[in-house]
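[job 4471] stage=fold_predict status=RUNNING
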Amino acid sequence: MTQSGVSQHVRKLEEQLQQNLIIRQGKQFTLTYAGESLYQEGRKILNDVLAIEQRISLDPDDAGEIRIMSPGSIGLKLYPRVLNLQQTFPQLVMDYRFAPNAAIEEAIINFDVDIGLMTSLTQTAQVNAMPIGDEALVLVTPATILKPDWEVLFNLGFIDHPDGEHHVNQLLGTNFSAFQGYDTLIKKGFSNQIHLILRPVSMGLGFTVLPYFAVDEFLNTELIKVHQLSKPVKEIIYLCHHRNRPLLNRMKKLVAHIKSWV
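[job 4471] inference complete, writing structure tokens
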């Protein structure tokens, strides 16, 4: 810019701020306190803008936050492995939350999560879903129940959980002709904590239906019995993200690991 152009801009700044910014001394000048303050604050702003540009243009695969959401059973299997990955790459920040399928789908749609793992196929075009594996559903009773015929199960009662209706309709509906639907079950308890659902079962208070990963993580296995039914049922595990938000490199790295783990 010419000297006159610079002088014009300085005068406009002084008019806007109602402060003298420079003390003119012929062809030289010095900054007033207000001018020095504006200069320092302006440098910070320009540096921040430059930093934003750099952060946006950089897309490392080993740093940054990743927000993940999955049903509890899958989470029990994946969460320790996700933490091990974070130990290897300490600049990764893992935000892992457990939720039922419907809540995961809603979080993806609202951009509240980067990666979602679901066991029911989404019905919305906003969610991109890719099958990456499967997980068996299993019937779990107290260890004292050796043969789970329908009368025994019905009288024992059901320990419910957030995906309970979805799971019993799939497994019991396939294997027991007398099963007339989730609403006909006698409910003996409910827990929304995946690691606690088998606690009442182990105490003889009821039966439940869970994905295998959740049962495999239960410590007091001598207190429960996992029954192999004549018609096995498996849930497909879908890896999901919002169709209109491509995954960053760090998310692609995690997706590759999740595929191998599952």
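[job 4471] summary: The mean pLDDT is 92.
[job 4471] exit 0
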